[in-house]
Amino acid sequence: MLTSTALVLMMTGPGLALFYSGLVRKKNVLGTLMQSFALMAVVTVLWGLFSYSLSFGSGTSFIGGFQNLFLRSVGAAPDADYAPTIPAQTFMVYQLMFAIITPALIAGAFAERMKFSAMLVFTVLWSVIVYDPMAHMVWGKGGLLNASLGGRFPTLDFAGGTVVHVTSGVSALVCALYLGKRVGYPKESMPPHSVVLSFVGACLLWVGWFGFNAGSALAAGSLATSAFVATHFSAAAAAVGWAGVEWMRNGKPSALGAISGAVAGLVAITPASGFVKPMPALAIGLIAGVFCYWMVAKVKARLGYDDSLDAFGVHGAGGTLGALLTGVFAVSAVNPIFKDAQGHTLASGLLEGNAHQLLNQLVGVSIAWVLAIVGTLAILKVVDATIGLRVSEEEEAQGLDLSQHGEEGYYWEASA
Amino acid sequence: MTKIEAVIQNSKLEAVKTSLQEIGVEGMTVIEVRGHGRQKGHTEVYRGREYSVDLIPKTKLEMVLADALVEKAVQAILGAARTGKIGDGKIFLSRVDEAIRIRNDERGEGAL
What we know:
The structure holds two protein chains of two kinds. Chain A is mostly helical. Chain A has 13 helices and no strands. Chain B has two helices and six strands; from the N terminus they run E-H-E-E-E-E-H-E. The interface between A and B is medium-sized, with 19 and 9 residues.
């Protein structure tokens, strides 16, 4: 579990940090790295002080409480409700890594134009107002959507399709629309300054995702293995899917397309990873690769919003797709999550005979969408009214590295 | 004294340099540039967005030579840099008023 925890942190730093930074222009590389890195620090502090308690403490169906304020009672003894074989502290720090990466994903939508100060304030508020309630509803004791602990609308979300990807992805769309397009978009040419960095980041994400999904079994064993395999197969199929579509449409499969495809597959399999068999995982990946390509290459262009690094196109759309497909492909043979009063295992998903589960998935996804939209809009308005969200036009032209951090990412001029 | 500016294909730099050195050219400056004449660029596609790249990477050589050497140098460049296709580049000649060696103040053709 500690290895999985470390892998998930690695997904943010440097996985996501590099993936995003490679996609922006050279003058914003450090600013983009800093957005991920700052969250590694800031969210950790919040988590320790009170965010863990709000997410995983007992409270209402919508939010936890303050019993674990300052991590009180979170020690060596396991929390039987969550993970009976590992210390509560292990569970806490594992969940922390999820809380860190979720807001970091949103940065893809406001890349290259958000003030660093505004990003920090936004993230602190978002973490508490959107992430904590969603995590509580799906994974917390008494949560409305908790499939393991008898939630009213049990939503199957093994590792965070709704909690992580839908919330961040939809919030990203709201941010992109609220902040507006980058100066010069879409006419000015803004190609990625280093697909190489993005490539390294994407590979780190793929490997790290084993911690994200397999680790969500919260113990080594057959379920963790099953999640590991499903994760890997989905990533592979999605990479083939996206690259394949590009090859057919553009005549050449791009490196950026292949790695984006893999990420889309990883996103989509996240909610399904602990519930589906390997062949359906391949199918989920393939569908996600093609679907997310279409969202990013066609829908975004047609609708005209500047979701700079495709946080909505891959995470919002991919997460929604994955959460719904989980309702289709989940089988009790992999994970007997639903039991009747006598303890007999019930069918999990549509193909196994439980059509109703799709409705529950829809409820979970819808709540994520609504919470993300309403919460994000409110926070954006407040932050914009107080300190302002966007850098000035001059700062945007100068680049975030210089304007926000007083640095340059690359000093390659001759200085022998 | 005449300044020769030659914009050539990147892949021809070694051949041109060798040819010039063989006829006695002792100094030159090489700069990486981007530009275009009649040669069209290419299109790159990132995540479904097309980027038209019409400034093509080229290499520019600059050298100032004694007038007696200029035509031989031009022929050397032409011979080494030409492929016959669009994009081979161009050579420009211009008059230079003075040349000065920084090390010892030498002036005129002796400074070249």
